[in-house]
Amino acid sequence: MIMRAPLSVFLLLVLVSLQPSQAHGKDGLHKLESLIQEEVLPFTQGFGFPSISSSDGELDIRGMQDGVEDVVSAWYLDDDTEGDQRLPYHRQPDDPVPLAKLLDLGLVALRLDAENHEHDENLTIIRDLRGYMHMDIVELTPKKMPNYETMIKRFFEEHLHADEEVRYCLEGSGYFDVRDKDDRWIRVSARKGALIIVPAGIYHRFTLDTNNYIKVTGKYDP
Ligand SMILES: *[C@@H]1O[C@H](CO)[C@@H](O)[C@H](O)[C@H]1NC(C)=O
Protein backbone atom coordinates (compact mmCIF):
# COMPACT_ATOMS: atom_id res chain seq x y z
CA MET A 1 0.00 0.00 0.00
CA ILE A 2 2.90 2.30 0.72
CA MET A 3 4.11 1.70 -2.83
CA ARG A 4 0.80 2.49 -4.36
CA ALA A 5 0.76 6.27 -4.16
CA PRO A 6 4.24 6.82 -5.61
CA LEU A 7 3.55 4.29 -8.35
CA SER A 8 0.27 5.90 -9.32
CA VAL A 9 1.90 9.33 -9.30
CA PHE A 10 4.61 7.97 -11.56
CA LEU A 11 2.06 6.46 -13.95
CA LEU A 12 0.13 9.70 -14.03
CA LEU A 13 3.27 11.67 -14.78
CA VAL A 14 3.86 9.33 -17.71
CA LEU A 15 0.25 9.77 -18.77
CA VAL A 16 0.36 13.55 -18.57
CA SER A 17 3.70 13.74 -20.35
CA LEU A 18 2.12 11.81 -23.23
CA GLN A 19 -0.40 14.63 -23.52
CA PRO A 20 1.86 17.69 -23.69
CA SER A 21 -0.97 20.10 -24.50
CA GLN A 22 -2.49 19.45 -21.08
CA ALA A 23 0.72 19.30 -19.13
CA HIS A 24 1.60 22.97 -19.25
CA GLY A 25 0.87 25.68 -16.77
CA LYS A 26 -1.80 25.81 -14.10
CA ASP A 27 -4.30 23.72 -16.06
CA GLY A 28 -1.87 20.88 -16.37
CA LEU A 29 -1.19 20.98 -12.66
CA HIS A 30 -4.89 20.97 -11.82
CA LYS A 31 -5.44 18.09 -14.17
CA LEU A 32 -2.64 16.16 -12.50
CA GLU A 33 -4.07 16.87 -9.07
CA SER A 34 -7.54 15.78 -10.02
CA LEU A 35 -6.20 12.64 -11.69
CA ILE A 36 -4.31 11.76 -8.55
CA GLN A 37 -7.43 12.33 -6.48
CA GLU A 38 -9.49 10.15 -8.78
CA GLU A 39 -6.85 7.50 -8.56
CA VAL A 40 -6.65 7.56 -4.78
CA LEU A 41 -10.26 8.05 -3.74
CA PRO A 42 -11.93 5.02 -5.35
CA PHE A 43 -9.26 2.87 -3.78
CA THR A 44 -10.07 4.04 -0.28
CA GLN A 45 -13.79 4.24 -0.90
CA GLY A 46 -13.98 0.80 -2.49
CA PHE A 47 -14.02 -0.65 0.97
CA GLY A 48 -17.52 0.53 1.71
CA PHE A 49 -19.26 -1.04 -1.27
CA PRO A 50 -21.35 -3.30 -1.29
CA SER A 51 -19.83 -6.68 -0.82
CA ILE A 52 -16.28 -7.88 -0.89
CA SER A 53 -14.73 -11.24 -1.49
CA SER A 54 -13.06 -13.09 1.29
CA SER A 55 -11.71 -16.59 1.38
CA ASP A 56 -15.02 -17.67 2.95
CA GLY A 57 -16.99 -16.29 0.04
CA GLU A 58 -18.84 -13.00 -0.01
CA LEU A 59 -19.03 -10.80 3.04
CA ASP A 60 -21.45 -7.91 3.20
CA ILE A 61 -19.32 -5.17 4.71
CA ARG A 62 -22.40 -2.98 5.02
CA GLY A 63 -23.50 -5.27 7.82
CA MET A 64 -20.66 -3.77 9.81
CA GLN A 65 -22.29 -0.37 9.37
CA ASP A 66 -25.38 -1.50 11.29
CA GLY A 67 -25.79 0.71 14.33
CA VAL A 68 -22.74 2.77 13.46
CA GLU A 69 -24.74 5.95 14.12
CA ASP A 70 -24.87 4.92 17.78
CA VAL A 71 -21.09 5.15 18.09
CA VAL A 72 -20.07 7.68 15.42
CA SER A 73 -21.49 11.14 14.84
CA ALA A 74 -20.11 14.13 12.99
CA TRP A 75 -20.67 17.87 12.71
CA TYR A 76 -19.07 20.96 11.25
CA LEU A 77 -16.91 22.72 13.78
CA ASP A 78 -17.74 26.18 14.95
CA ASP A 79 -15.62 29.01 13.52
CA ASP A 80 -14.39 29.88 16.98
CA THR A 81 -12.49 26.98 18.52
CA GLU A 82 -9.99 29.05 20.45
CA GLY A 83 -10.63 27.40 23.84
CA ASP A 84 -10.00 23.83 25.01
CA GLN A 85 -9.61 21.51 22.00
CA ARG A 86 -11.62 18.83 23.88
CA LEU A 87 -14.87 20.78 23.77
CA PRO A 88 -17.37 19.72 21.08
CA TYR A 89 -17.66 23.15 19.38
CA HIS A 90 -21.00 22.59 17.70
CA ARG A 91 -22.10 25.40 15.43
CA GLN A 92 -25.17 27.45 16.36
CA PRO A 93 -27.44 26.07 15.02
CA ASP A 94 -25.86 22.63 14.91
CA ASP A 95 -24.63 21.55 11.46
CA PRO A 96 -24.50 17.73 11.52
CA VAL A 97 -22.65 15.77 8.84
CA PRO A 98 -24.28 12.49 7.74
CA LEU A 99 -22.02 9.45 7.64
CA ALA A 100 -22.75 9.13 3.91
CA LYS A 101 -21.00 12.46 3.41
CA LEU A 102 -17.99 11.17 5.33
CA LEU A 103 -17.93 8.21 2.97
CA ASP A 104 -17.87 10.66 0.04
CA LEU A 105 -14.67 12.02 1.53
CA GLY A 106 -13.34 8.47 1.71
CA LEU A 107 -13.75 8.20 5.46
CA VAL A 108 -15.18 4.81 6.38
CA ALA A 109 -16.92 4.28 9.73
CA LEU A 110 -17.86 0.80 10.87
CA ARG A 111 -19.18 -0.68 14.06
CA LEU A 112 -17.56 -3.74 15.54
CA ASP A 113 -18.01 -5.65 18.77
CA ALA A 114 -15.42 -4.00 21.01
CA GLU A 115 -16.02 -6.46 23.86
CA ASN A 116 -14.94 -9.24 21.57
CA HIS A 117 -12.07 -7.53 19.75
CA GLU A 118 -9.57 -10.26 20.56
CA HIS A 119 -11.63 -12.91 18.80
CA ASP A 120 -13.59 -10.87 16.27
CA GLU A 121 -13.60 -12.53 12.86
CA ASN A 122 -14.83 -9.29 11.29
CA LEU A 123 -11.81 -7.41 12.58
CA THR A 124 -9.60 -10.17 11.20
CA ILE A 125 -11.25 -9.84 7.81
CA ILE A 126 -10.75 -6.08 7.79
CA ARG A 127 -7.14 -6.44 8.86
CA ASP A 128 -6.45 -9.00 6.13
CA LEU A 129 -8.19 -6.94 3.50
CA ARG A 130 -6.44 -3.70 4.35
CA GLY A 131 -3.07 -5.14 5.31
CA TYR A 132 -3.08 -4.03 8.93
CA MET A 133 -0.44 -6.41 10.16
CA HIS A 134 0.43 -4.97 13.50
CA MET A 135 -2.09 -3.11 15.63
CA ASP A 136 -1.05 -1.69 18.98
CA ILE A 137 -3.47 -0.93 21.78
CA VAL A 138 -2.91 2.35 23.58
CA GLU A 139 -4.70 3.93 26.48
CA LEU A 140 -4.73 7.69 26.63
CA THR A 141 -5.63 9.13 30.00
CA PRO A 142 -4.03 11.65 32.37
CA LYS A 143 -3.68 8.92 35.03
CA LYS A 144 -1.27 6.94 32.88
CA MET A 145 0.44 9.81 31.08
CA PRO A 146 2.32 12.42 33.10
CA ASN A 147 2.75 14.47 29.91
CA TYR A 148 -0.89 14.10 28.88
CA GLU A 149 -1.58 17.76 28.15
CA THR A 150 1.52 18.04 25.95
CA MET A 151 0.67 14.82 24.14
CA ILE A 152 -2.88 15.77 23.29
CA LYS A 153 -1.63 19.03 21.81
CA ARG A 154 0.74 17.02 19.66
CA PHE A 155 -2.04 14.70 18.41
CA PHE A 156 -4.03 17.80 17.56
CA GLU A 157 -1.50 19.08 15.04
CA GLU A 158 -3.00 18.87 11.60
CA HIS A 159 -1.28 16.35 9.33
CA LEU A 160 -1.77 13.87 6.51
CA HIS A 161 -0.25 10.54 5.53
CA ALA A 162 0.62 8.77 2.30
CA ASP A 163 -1.13 5.73 3.76
CA GLU A 164 -4.57 5.38 5.29
CA GLU A 165 -5.00 5.58 9.04
CA VAL A 166 -7.19 3.20 11.01
CA ARG A 167 -8.40 3.73 14.55
CA TYR A 168 -10.67 1.41 16.47
CA CYS A 169 -12.14 2.69 19.73
CA LEU A 170 -12.27 -0.14 22.26
CA GLU A 171 -13.29 1.98 25.24
CA GLY A 172 -13.93 5.64 25.95
CA SER A 173 -14.18 8.20 23.15
CA GLY A 174 -12.39 10.83 21.10
CA TYR A 175 -12.66 13.24 18.18
CA PHE A 176 -11.14 12.75 14.74
CA ASP A 177 -11.24 16.03 12.85
CA VAL A 178 -11.02 15.88 9.08
CA ARG A 179 -11.15 18.60 6.47
CA ASP A 180 -13.79 18.38 3.78
CA LYS A 181 -13.12 19.24 0.13
CA ASP A 182 -13.59 22.95 0.91
CA ASP A 183 -11.13 22.74 3.82
CA ARG A 184 -13.85 23.04 6.46
CA TRP A 185 -13.25 21.04 9.62
CA ILE A 186 -15.62 18.19 10.39
CA ARG A 187 -15.48 16.81 13.92
CA VAL A 188 -16.06 13.03 14.00
CA SER A 189 -16.92 11.69 17.43
CA ALA A 190 -15.93 8.03 17.86
CA ARG A 191 -17.12 5.98 20.79
CA LYS A 192 -16.74 2.38 21.92
CA GLY A 193 -17.04 0.01 18.95
CA ALA A 194 -16.30 2.61 16.27
CA LEU A 195 -13.71 1.73 13.65
CA ILE A 196 -12.66 4.73 11.56
CA ILE A 197 -10.53 4.63 8.43
CA VAL A 198 -9.14 8.02 7.46
CA PRO A 199 -8.04 7.78 3.82
CA ALA A 200 -4.58 8.69 2.62
CA GLY A 201 -4.01 12.30 1.73
CA ILE A 202 -6.68 14.10 3.73
CA TYR A 203 -5.83 16.52 6.49
CA HIS A 204 -6.82 15.35 9.93
CA ARG A 205 -6.01 15.57 13.62
CA PHE A 206 -7.11 13.83 16.79
CA THR A 207 -8.11 14.90 20.24
CA LEU A 208 -9.53 13.36 23.36
CA ASP A 209 -12.88 14.80 24.36
CA THR A 210 -13.78 16.03 27.84
CA ASN A 211 -14.04 12.42 29.12
CA ASN A 212 -10.23 12.33 28.86
CA TYR A 213 -10.18 8.61 28.22
CA ILE A 214 -9.79 6.43 25.17
CA LYS A 215 -8.51 2.93 24.65
CA VAL A 216 -7.77 2.69 20.99
CA THR A 217 -6.08 0.32 18.61
CA GLY A 218 -4.72 1.10 15.22
CA LYS A 219 -1.96 0.70 12.75
CA TYR A 220 0.54 3.39 13.62
CA ASP A 221 3.02 4.76 11.17
CA PRO A 222 6.56 3.80 12.13
C1 LIG B 1 -19.71 -9.54 11.62
O1 LIG B 1 -20.39 -8.72 10.71
C2 LIG B 1 -21.65 -9.21 10.30
C3 LIG B 1 -22.18 -8.25 9.26
O2 LIG B 1 -21.29 -8.10 8.20
C4 LIG B 1 -22.56 -9.33 11.49
O3 LIG B 1 -23.80 -9.85 11.08
C5 LIG B 1 -21.92 -10.21 12.54
O4 LIG B 1 -22.72 -10.24 13.69
C6 LIG B 1 -20.54 -9.71 12.88
N1 LIG B 1 -19.87 -10.60 13.79
C7 LIG B 1 -19.41 -10.22 14.97
C8 LIG B 1 -18.69 -11.25 15.76
O5 LIG B 1 -19.54 -9.08 15.40
TrEMBL record:
InterPro entries: ARD, ARD_euk, RmlC-like_jellyroll, RmlC_Cupin_sf. GO terms for cellular component: cytoplasm; nucleus. Pathway: Amino-acid biosynthesis; L-methionine biosynthesis via salvage pathway; L-methionine from S-methyl-5-thio-alpha-D-ribose 1-phosphate: step 5/6. Binds either 1 Fe or Ni cation per monomer. Iron-binding promotes an acireductone dioxygenase reaction producing 2-keto-4-methylthiobutyrate, while nickel-binding promotes an acireductone dioxygenase reaction producing 3-(methylsulfanyl)propanoate. Pfam families: ARD. Residues 1-23 form the signal peptide. GO terms for biological process: L-methionine salvage from methylthioadenosine. Its EC number is 1.13.11.54, 1.13.11.53. Ni(2+) binds at H159, H161, E165, H204. Its main location: cytoplasm. Belongs to the acireductone dioxygenase (ARD) family. This is Acireductone dioxygenase. The gene is gb26032.
